[in-house]
Design brief:
CATH class of one domain: Alpha Beta
Strand content: 5-15%
Number of helices: 4
CATH topology of one domain: D-Maltodextrin-Binding Protein, domain 2
Structural class: mainly alpha
Radius of gyration: 25 Å
Distance between the termini: 57 Å
Number of strands: 3
Largest sheet: 3 strands, antiparallel
Helix content: 40-55%
Order of helices and strands: EHEEHHH
C-alpha cells in the first residue's frame, strides 16, 4: 500500500507484530490505519483496515458492520441479510420425487443383503 500498488487492505486475526511495521509505513506514506469501525486502536483488537484516505473512508461503513465491536443492530442486519440471501431448498415436484426415490432405495438395498442397519 505504501508503494501505491494497492489502495486498501483489511484482515482479521492478525497479531501486533503482523501489522506494526506495515502500519508505520502506511501512515508515513499518508495513508490511514485503524480497525473496521475506523478507530485508531487496531493493534489490540485484531482487526486491521488500511488505505489511502479516500478508500479508507469508503471501506469503514462497509466493513464496520462486520467488526466484532459493531453494535447489536448492525450485527442483526448482517444476519438477516445473510438469511435472505441463502438459497432455498428445491421444492419442485421432480426434486421431491428424486428425494423420495433416494429414501426408498436405501432401505431396500439393506434388506436385499439381509443385513440389519448399523447403529
Amino acid at each position: 500500500m505504501a508503494a501505491g500498488f494497492t489502495d486498501g487492505f483489511f484482515e482479521t486475526g492478525l497479531s501486533i507484530w503482523d501489522v506494526a511495521a506495515g502500519s508505520l509505513l502506511v501512515t508515513e506514506a499518508g495513508g490511514l490505519v485503524g480497525n473496521f469501525t475506523g478507530e485508531a486502536d487496531f493493534l489490540e483488537q485484531r482487526e486491521c483496515l488500511a488505505g489511502n484516505p479516500r478508500v479508507y473512508g469508503q471501506l469503514v461503513p462497509i466493513l464496520g458492520k462486520y467488526s466484532k465491536f459493531a453494535s447489536a443492530g448492525d450485527k442483526a442486519a448482517v444476519r438477516q441479510a445473510a438469511a435472505a440471501d441463502a438459497p432455498e431448498a428445491d421444492s419442485t415436484p421432480e426434486a421431491e420425487d428424486a428425494a423420495d426415490a433416494a429414501e426408498s432405495a436405501a432401505p431396500q438395498a439393506d434388506t436385499a443383503k439381509g443385513e440389519d442397519a448399523p447403529f
